[in-house]
Amino acid sequence: MPKGRTGRGGGQAGPGRVAGGSGSGGSAGGGAGQGDSSVIEDVLEVISQVAATADQDAAAANQLVTGPFEVEVPSRTRGRTDRLTVTFVSADEADVSSNSGRSYRTSVDRCNCPDYIYRRGACRHMEALNRAVGMRGRGSTGSHTPAGGVPAPEQTGMQNEEYSNLQELDAAEEQQRRERLARWEEYQRQHDDGTYLSRDENAFESLYELSRDGSNIEYEYENVLGGSENTFGIEIEFVGADINTVARDLHAAGLVSSPRRGGYHASRTPGMWAIERDGSVSDGDIGGEVISPVLRDTPETWRQLEKVCEIVKRNGGLVNMRCGGHVHVGADPLDESTWRWIRLARIAAGFEDVIYRMAAGGESQGRHRGEGGGFHYSAPAPRGVDRFFSNRRVSQSSLISEISPSRYFGLNLRNVGQGQKNTVEFRHFNGTLDPKQIQANVKIANAIVHAAENLRRNRDSTRERAQFIPGNPNRLGETVMSGDDEGHSQVRRFVDAIFNNSRDKAAALWLYATSRWQARYS
Asked: Which residues contact 220 (CB under 8 A, 6 or more apart)?
């Protein structure tokens, strides 16, 4: 009820109080007072007035959002002005469509377009919405002053200045990306040994025999990831050891910030490893997970990994079929290009059977932790991803959710665009406390991301390797059903696609040789 309205009883109603009649707040205490009917009539009258006012407001709002409004905004990536159509669905939310026919749901502070999802910054659709708000305001009142009291012409100037700054930032980022790519290509060129195992049977047999028991695979410290400047992270799950004892030793070694374990997904100190309980492996204080900070390919990174594994094992840490060894790879190289994400889907689904076989190699001795449990924590890619092999018109806004509907898929993209944790997560790998095996896993995961970024058939430097990206999916369990791949054709194409030198191919073949084809369900 509006404050200060005079009720029928002659008194004035204060906030939260009905005037007239007996009792406070409309209640008569033990029985019905004589003024109750007046009170009820009074309340009903006010409700009726409020409803009428709400109806008028809703009608006015509906009138404001009829649209559509056509606005012109600069395209940061195309270097031209685009005409966008804005159709409001509420006072501050609209569907924004471009000439290409794509439409995105946009509000004043977010958008579901790839530019916003990947960069988490203002996009041209949000700019179009802001301009349409101004047009809508002028159409309904004859003048427009945007929120914050900034007149429309001044706001336009501010927006243009902000757009100019974004253009400069984009140009700088693109220049950095090109320079990084040039360095990567030069490193790849210098270290390319020109051997394709898919085409040279003798070369494959020799390398397979050399690597199959792991004795010839060395743990490396320098230039491990083929010239990659990308970031990555590691999760190491273990059982058997007291987590607090492990935490004290890791702290004494200067690797974690506290001598006590942290809570699950607790805040972490930048640059430091973390140790915490994990529901899938912890039994009280026995077992847990060691999580790396953001890492790069440096000797110090690989020395730290080696030390972490040594400390966990020294305190009785083990791995079993409950343990995973997740690898995160920075998603920045994939950026917002649709084709890079499509290539990632094609590599992951086209070589899925090979990847799961490698994920169960080394210390796991060939059995994947997902067998018998439905691959609950590392599910194979959804069948819907198969359309990426034939459909060239894939909506950018649906790629991530289609590839990984939840985070419990072998390829988890739910972190993409999430600020500091903008990563592609590979959950396929079994747990291990062998640093050499973890290093091989990181090599594979990082190489897949770079292959998705760079393997284009219209680029001279990558054309030959791009031919090995599958044209059809090869799913987990399909090789089991069709019989063993005696010629090892799948793994030969896989390592030829993602690696260009025998050293890295040997590390992957070691994991492959020490495993077997996995059944999807046992």
From this structure: 302, 439
